[in-house]
């Protein structure tokens, strides 16, 4: 077992005092950076990159990977407690995490998120250890048609996301797609939908700006309107015993989402085009679709917290894979890690696993240790996070507003985005009043900009022949499954209608 | 011969630095807040790799008292970045890492109203050559075999690149014209994605910078067929240039740093000093050599002349391509 020896050496390396200290500091810093709205792993890694020049390269990348891990855990915290997505990777966590918190079950949501993150990270680490070279070639076999088929599948799972109101869901998806099309077109390079000739629209609508507007500001407006400011603060009690009970419940009601998120998230993370945000959204959709009680989703289902949290941790390990083996970053954060590695004199790419064995396995070993450390540190901080919820709403609401604004500004440092965010918040409030589901629009703005260029690239490849999506060995089955899922509700509806008509004459 | 030219160019580069009177001026002005370090391309490609590398050198050597904050704005072949920097409300804290779309995008999209001469010259860090790559499984090892294969495919030969009017598309268009080839061109959002899809054989050939393809070349996956540099590259001594093949053409991507329009002279002097130090660092000189870039150091006036020349060259090239 060559791999296991290498891994054991790697773990020993990451348990050396300096490296272990790097892991503990990195995870803790990452946890808080992730918990700050607007600041995610990208910012954390970018800000702290200079610090790493003080230590040897091996320890430096371990430190950055630990921040990455910590931030993935931390993103869930503000999603759950405040309803503001802590990072784009934790947007899907608000869907069910926030309702749970409002029911006074924030501790259940936080424990579920921590456990799911741990399992997601562990599954990804094991897959990474055993199958890295194989998975790298799988990533390469995904060309434009395959990526488009996968995006189609993701949309298919989300048609079911908006409950039974399929027309409203489709409207919401289309709305998101249009927003996603704003900015420069990748294929022709021409600007599109530059509304009112504002230059701010040229860079496209930032996903985090939309998500913070919709979930941070929109949610706050909604709460104020529903309660007229009179929010009964349900003070959740925290105790070791309570946490043990929550752990049991989290395991019982969140295991499905955790498993789906762990595997799907990893796979999506490995594809260089995608990364942790699409991975977490897709896992949420698939978990809901496969659940026996899809009605619970959006109202506080632990599975709905577990799936995106397992997926974003799993995907962040997954996206290291194309970076290390192909030299191509799978996410913005890994792009920064890549820059760091180059300056340390390590060249990511096909040769890295051969030339720099000690470094690679030290890094993989540190993933295992970081993951365990992140779980323990996160669980220890849960009482602190819960404490925030005990504040009266009259204090919490302005705080959410300020954090949303600061978070929106931090992402791009552009005032235009703040106005846009406020508009999205107000728009989301009205859409919600008219019962339009918002999650599909959020998904569409993330996946649209991946789906559109790959669709057009595929059609260029085939000279405009759509059969390219059916005839390729990987794209074909995915496309067919996606189409079946899209048309399944229509078929069901039709059958129900026919059934009723048949019954009537009999009566 | 080639090595001596490289050495000669670096000596010229070094001698140009020596009399530069920047040091004295730079004492006066220092940044008061983080510097918006705009990159004209998406993450992962050649321009982004260089920007990250330069930022790392600045951090490592502690050259700036405020951090350079990388900001990828690759939309619209760099138009997004050009507009962002042109409209910067604080030109003293806004600098841009450029490639040749600095010249081509304002030419192709005249309605953007960008005049490159309004930007502030800071540093020319080097020029990056282009190479034609195929996958080893194609069995193609020479330019003759490549030309034969493309002709045999009759318009179905697929190449990837970073978009119409971008550097690689200019090179591909010239090559197609010179060899009478009919190529299907698929645009991607960056050189990294292009290289990945050649490695996965989703496309059949690319014109990538050596930096983008090097990992796959060293692993034996990519085969270089033709270089678009003036002379053979030291790292690829067996790869013929298109000039040797009888076509008088060479094309390089500029790797330059420019300041926002309206930047004060003091701020410009500060950045010129910082990037001179980065240029002279062992790290950057090592990068130039490892990634096959050619040094092409210029002072501020020479950079402006170079811009004017490049705008004219690209006008001719784009017109010839029917853009």
TrEMBL record, chain A:
The chain crosses the membrane at residues 20-39, 46-69, 75-95, 107-135, 147-163, 170-188, 200-218, 263-286, 326-347, 359-387, 393-411, 418-434, 474-494. Signal peptide: none annotated. It holds the Pfam family TctA. Keywords: Membrane, Transmembrane, Transmembrane helix. Residues 20-443 form the DUF112 domain. This is Tricarboxylate transporter. It comes from Roseobacter cerasinus.
TrEMBL record, chain B:
Pfam families: TctC. Residues 1-26 form the signal peptide. The keyword Nucleotide-binding does not apply. This is Tricarboxylate transporter. Belongs to the UPF0065 (bug) family. Keywords: Signal. It comes from Roseobacter cerasinus. The keyword Signal applies.
């Amino acid at each position: 077992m060559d791999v296991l020896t290498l891994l054991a050496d790697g773990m020993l390396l990451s348990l050396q005092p300096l490296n272990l200290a790097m892991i503990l500091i990195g995870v803790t810093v990452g946890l808080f950076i992730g918990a700050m709205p607007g600041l995610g792993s990208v910012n954390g890694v970018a800000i702290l990159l200079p610090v790493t020049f003080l230590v040897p390269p091996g320890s430096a990348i371990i430190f950055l990977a630990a921040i990455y891990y910590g931030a993935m855990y931390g993103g869930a915290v503000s999603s759950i407690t405040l309803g503001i997505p802590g990072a784009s990777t934790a947007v899907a966590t608000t869907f069910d995490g926030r309702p749970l918190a409002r029911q006074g079950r924030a501790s259940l949501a936080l424990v579920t998120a921590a456990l799911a993150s741990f399992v997601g990270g562990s599954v990804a680490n094991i897959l990474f250890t055993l199958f890295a070279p194989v998975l790298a070639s799988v990533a390469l076999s995904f060309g434009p048609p395959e990526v488009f088929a996968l995006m189609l599948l993701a949309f298919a799972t989300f048609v079911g996301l908006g409950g039974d109101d399929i027309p409203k869901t489709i409207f919401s998806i289309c709305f998101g797609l249009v927003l996603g099309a704003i900015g420069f077109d990748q294929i022709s390079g021409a600007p599109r939908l530059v509304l009112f000739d504002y230059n701010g629209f040229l860079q496209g609508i930032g996903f985090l700006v939309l998500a913070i507007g919709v979930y941070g500001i929109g949610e706050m407006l909604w709460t104020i309107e529903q309660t007229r400011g009179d929010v009964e603060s349900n003070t959740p009690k925290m105790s070791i015993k309570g946490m043990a009970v929550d752990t049991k419940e989290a395991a019982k009601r969140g295991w499905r989402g955790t498993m789906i998120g762990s595997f799907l998230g990893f796979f999506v993370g490995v594809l260089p085009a995608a990364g942790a945000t699409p991975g977490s959204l897709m896992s949420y959709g698939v978990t809901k679709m496969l659940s026996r009680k899809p009605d619970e989703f959006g109202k506080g289902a632990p599975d709905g917290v577990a799936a995106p949290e397992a997926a974003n941790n799993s995907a962040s390990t997954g996206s290291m894979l194309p970076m290390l083996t192909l030299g191509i970053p799978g996410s913005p954060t890994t792009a920064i890690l890549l820059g760091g590695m180059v300056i340390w004199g390590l060249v990511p790419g096909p040769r890295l696993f051969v030339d720099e064995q000690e470094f690679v396995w030290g890094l993989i070993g540190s993933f295992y240790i970081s993951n365990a450390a992140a779980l323990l540190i996160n669980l220890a901080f849960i009482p602190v996070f819960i404490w925030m919820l005990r504040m009266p709403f009259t204090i919490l609401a302005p705080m959410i507003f300020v954090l949303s604004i600061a978070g929106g500004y931090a992402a791009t440092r552009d005032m235009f985005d703040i106005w846009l965010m406020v508009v999205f918040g107000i728009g989301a409030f009205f859409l919600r009043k008219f019962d339009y589901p918002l999650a599909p629009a959020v998904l569409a703005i993330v996946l649209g900009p991946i789906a559109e260029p790959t669709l057009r690239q595929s059609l260029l490849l085939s000279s405009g022949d759509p059969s390219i999506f059916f005839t390729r060995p990987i794209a074909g089955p995915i496309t067919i499954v996606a189409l079946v899922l899209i048309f399944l509700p229509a078929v069901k509806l039709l059958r129900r209608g026919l059934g009723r008509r048949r019954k009537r004459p009999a009566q | 011969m080639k090595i001596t030219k490289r050495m000669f160019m670096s000596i010229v580069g070094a001698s140009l630095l020596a009399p530069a009177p920047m040091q004295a001026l730079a004492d006066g002005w220092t940044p008061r807040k983080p510097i918006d370090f705009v990159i004209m391309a998406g993450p992962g490609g050649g321009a982004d790799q260089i920007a990250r590398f330069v930022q790392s050198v600045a951090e490592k050597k502690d050259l700036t008292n405020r951090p350079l904050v990388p900001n990828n704005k690759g939309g619209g072949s760099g138009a997004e970045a050009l507009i962002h920097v042109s409209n910067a409300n604080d030109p003293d804290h806004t600098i841009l890492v450029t490639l040749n779309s600095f010249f081509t995008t304002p030419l192709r999209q005249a309605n953007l109203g960008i005049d490159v001469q309004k930007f502030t010259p800071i540093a020319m860090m080097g020029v990056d050559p282009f190479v034609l790559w195929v996958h080893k499984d194609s069995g193609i090892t020479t330019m003759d075999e490549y030309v034969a294969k493309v002709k045999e495919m009759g318009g179905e030969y697929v190449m990837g690149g970073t978009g119409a009017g971008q550097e690689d598309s200019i090179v591909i268009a010239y090559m197609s014209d010179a060899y009478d080839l009919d190529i299907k061109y698929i645009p991607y959002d960056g050189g990294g994605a292009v290289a990945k899809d050649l490695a996965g054989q989703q496309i059949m050939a690319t014109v990538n910078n050596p930096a983008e393809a090097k990992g796959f070349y060293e692993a034996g996956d990519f085969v270089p067929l033709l270089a678009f540099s003036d002379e053979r590259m030291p790292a690829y001594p067996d790869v013929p240039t298109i000039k040797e093949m009888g076509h008088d053409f060479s094309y390089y991507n500029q790797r330059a740093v420019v300041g926002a329009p309206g930047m004060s002279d003091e701020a410009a002097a500060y950045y010129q000093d910082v990037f001179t130090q980065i240029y002279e660092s062992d790290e950057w000189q090592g990068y130039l050599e490892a990634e096959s870039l050619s040094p092409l150091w210029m002072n501020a006036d020479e950079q402006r002349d170079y811009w004017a020349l490049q705008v004219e060259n690209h006008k001719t090239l784009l017109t010839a391509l029917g853009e």
